[in-house]
Write a structure and sequence with these properties.
Length: 285
Amino acid sequence: AGIGVVCLTWWGTGNADEQLRKVRGGVGFTAQVVPMLLDACQRHNLKVTFHLEPYEGRTAASVRADIEAIVALAGEHSAFYRNEHTRRPLYFVYDSYLLPAQQWVKLLRAPTDGGDAALSVRGNAQLDADFAALLVEQRRDERLVLDGGFDGVYSYFASTDFSYGTRLAAWPAIERWCREHGRFFVPSVGPGYSDLRIRPWNGKNQKQRRQGQYMRTMFAAARALSDDVRRLVGITSFNEWHEGTQIEPAAATVPPDAAGAFSYETYGDVDGDFYLRLTEEHLRA
């Protein structure tokens, strides 16, 4: 599909599943899976980065611990993503607005610029990286980026007009704002959106795939932005079926026990590999 980087969800090593496995004498799920995925991506000439998810008790200190754990697992692996020009890793911070700037500044500013000497990753050869904040509400999140020390923003969501960051008409303005403030913008595109299985009340944000036209429109908006050496386009997603954004190969089937079961939206009249080919078509354009 022309994709170069795989972004893995990171819930931290302190979640309940990880702790239960350790209590039982096993190896945590993350410690098992991440090396396997790195090796698999290396075989296919792909790089790996991480999507830092929110969790109970997330603080600047816990995020630093997350970065340390990621670097310990992946930092020396050739498949670990680093910007080809700056050699810096990249982390996407989901729901970054849930922590105030006073927390983020401890981690993302140098001690000489208000950061915490014990927590700051700035200037640390192993831990420093580019951190992208989730752009949902314009003024609030722009302020968070500037005050908290983030390096850029990303839109993530595949439902257009769900947030300021997903408003395609706003993407040129977002890019201009980022350029003016020395930040980067990663727009995200997707094939459609359908999360009624987990959010049955969210009908207004459902987006039909329209045989690929929805994704083509998002790609066109991303391509209309300037050609930046740091440009990345996010694909939401490869396999998030619960939000109907998957592009992985799929076929419509009816399992024997399907009576009363939830039915996911099919790919319609296109074949199961269609969205991978569509992605490649636009990424190589």
